[in-house]
Specification:
Layout: E1 2-3, H1 13-16, H2 21-53, H3 59-63, E2 65-70, E3 79-84, H4 89-94, E4 96-105, H5 113-125, E5 130-134, E6 137-143, H6 149-163, E7 173-185, H7 191-196, H8 199-211
Antiparallel strand pairs: 1-3, 2-3, 4-7, 5-6, 6-7
Length: 213
Amino acid sequence: MKLTLTTSGLLDPRQLSAWSAQRRRAIHAAVAKGMTSGGREVREAARSAMKNAFQVRRASFVASMSVKVFDRKPDRLPALWVGSRIPWLGIHTQGGTVSGNLLIPLLPGRIGPKRFRQVIDGLMRSGNAFFVEKNGRVLLMAENLQENAAQLARFKRAERERHGVKRLQRGQEIPIAVLVRRVDLKRRFDLAAGVQGALPKLAAAIRHELDRL
């Protein structure tokens, strides 16, 4: 997301062009410096919004939200970019539909995509993965075999909790995931609203640098 601040006075493009080239460079540098210092408040506000919107398990997830000042074009005022390097985060800011053959893990909690791929790969390599249709749903199943104990540990625990039993039989079929064609995601992360409260501090930081000219 890019935040744009407009104001009268020095930052008015019509008045800015009236200054000398040296003065415009000084204003440009001051705005960039103010955005750099004030941008930290924007970054922290965005990270706080992430914590409120998601069940955060890893600090690296929140730390992926950052800000960057673009100030290489001398004929334009600097711009402040706010965003994350996590590619799928964007769809949660506006909602949308993901289509395709999607496997949704049948677990009460979250499993990371990397770990889930390892589970599927391990089951596929051992030949212990197959699809069945139950009640109109297509399920990926696996048998309770010792050779797949590592891959099945969390899914066996989930199956025991679903049925209220302490042990599963050897060879018992365990549901791993459900196959779906599309997933509709609602908007859950309002990034713009999350950083609104930090904008006055950002503007104040820019004004502080301009007042020093």
